[in-house]
């Protein structure tokens, strides 16, 4: 389906290329509100069939039935409506539906999108890694053990542990707590803790009426 642009509005779609300056006479998808306009037109065309035998999303139409005879009847309704509205072309054997190739063979990946993915260069930034995983994630249902295979790539989105530790140490020093001088007349308390390969300790004393522990030093 092609939607005509009113002659008085065509200048609003003007674009420049090496061959000159041009304007659209038919609505392209790249314009603001073009998608919603197209959806509105499709909904208007099939308005009395939407709750009966067809679902419409942009330029994708899905005819649903519960028997073969009903399928022929519903297809006849839909195709007749398409003819009445001067449908430009019709793919009867197979077609792209929501980014997937649907045919009598089943549901396949869109070869055009796969060519784009396979031609992507090696990512060199977090943004490019995220974009690459986003492209693959669209077809993850077709990839066995997707999570396992993609895990090394996903880890590239994580912060470098050494850099993260470097900034954490600087942050801790910037906001370092105030330590208390030891009072040799009071008992000391040594609190220790271990975690895997690390050992930490806090030396403190309980001071004042509330007997709160005042830190004298940290050790690790």
UniProtKB/TrEMBL annotation:
Residues 163-220 form the Reverse transcriptase/retrotransposon-derived protein RNase H-like domain. InterPro entries: DNA/RNA_pol_sf (IPR043502), Rev_trsase/Diguanyl_cyclase (IPR043128), RT_dom (IPR000477), RT_RNaseH_2 (IPR041577), Viral_Replic_Matur_Polypro (IPR051320). Pfam families: RT_RNaseH_2, RVT_1. It comes from the Eukaryota. Signal peptide: none annotated. Residues 2-87 form the Reverse transcriptase domain. PANTHER family: POL PROTEIN, PTHR33064:SF39. This is Retrovirus-related Pol polyprotein. It comes from Mucuna pruriens. The gene is pol.
């Amino acid at each position: 389906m092609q939607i005509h642009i009113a002659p008085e509005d065509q200048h609003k779609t003007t674009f420049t290329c090496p061959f000159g300056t041009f304007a659209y006479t038919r609505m392209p998808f790249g314009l603001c509100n073009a998608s919603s306009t197209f959806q509105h037109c499709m909904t208007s065309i099939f308005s009395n069939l939407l709750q009966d035998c067809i679902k419409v999303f942009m330029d994708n139409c899905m005819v649903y039935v519960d028997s073969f005879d009903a399928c022929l009847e519903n297809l006849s309704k839909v195709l007749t409506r398409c003819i009445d509205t001067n449908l430009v072309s019709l793919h009867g054997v197979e077609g792209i539906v929501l980014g997937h190739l649907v045919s009598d063979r089943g549901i396949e990946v869109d070869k055009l999108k796969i060519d784009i993915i396979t031609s992507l260069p090696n990512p060199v930034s977090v943004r490019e890694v995220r974009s690459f995983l986003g492209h693959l994630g669209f077809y993850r249902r077709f990839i066995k053990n997707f999570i396992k295979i993609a895990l090394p790539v996903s880890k590239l989105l994580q912060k470098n542990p050494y850099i993260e530790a470097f900034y954490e140490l600087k942050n801790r020093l910037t906001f370092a707590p105030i330590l208390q001088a030891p009072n040799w007349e009071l008992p000391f308390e040594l609190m220790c803790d271990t975690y895997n390969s690390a050992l930490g300790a806090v030396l403190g004393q309980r001071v004042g009426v509330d007997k709160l522990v005042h830190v004298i030093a940290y050790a690790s």
